[in-house]
Amino acid sequence: MLSSMEVGYWSMCDVGNTMSEEPWLPAIRVMLESFRDLKADWDSYGADPPYPEAIEQATKFAELMSREGASKPHVAPCNDGSIAFEWTGDCELEVEIQPDGTADYLLNGDDEGSTDDWQVVVDMLAVGWVP
Questions:
Q1: Quick one: which of 89, 91, 90, 124 has its CA closest to 106?
Q2: Is position 131 within any domain?
């Protein structure tokens, strides 16, 4: 399932929520902030640096996922200025925060894996609630 939705206005999400954070969140925040230092052609193949809006939205998304109790994601800049999050296991969830404030996601389950654990995230993405 691949979907795109507007998440540029994440006012419905209370980023200041007092729920506990996962231990991985501070390191992800630092990593995301370090993406601001990437320059054009950071990968030597002509990549755009991550856009400031993508970094801000990715930080809010990481905070939300932490409050939801998600495991630590793999996070990386993409060559088009977006930022990718990936979780793997019995199923795989990929979320890409685009430079324009939209998010794309891909959720795959294998023959034995269930996507049920990620359904709440997919539902939030589908209605544009993620942050």
A1: 91
A2: no
Structure token digits, residue 65? 């996922």
Q: pTM of the prediction?
A: 0.77
> Residue 6's domain spans which residues?
2-11+21-126
pLDDT confidence of residue 53: 93
pLDDT for the residue numbered 26: 97
Q: Which of 123, 126, 83, 89 is nearest to 108 (CA)?
A: 89
Bridge-partner residues for 107, per DSSP?
Answer: 93
How far apart are the C-alpha atoms of 55 and 114, rounded to whole Å?
Answer: 30
Task: Give the separation between CA 114 and CA 108, rounded to whole angstroms.
Answer: 9
Domain count, the chain: 1
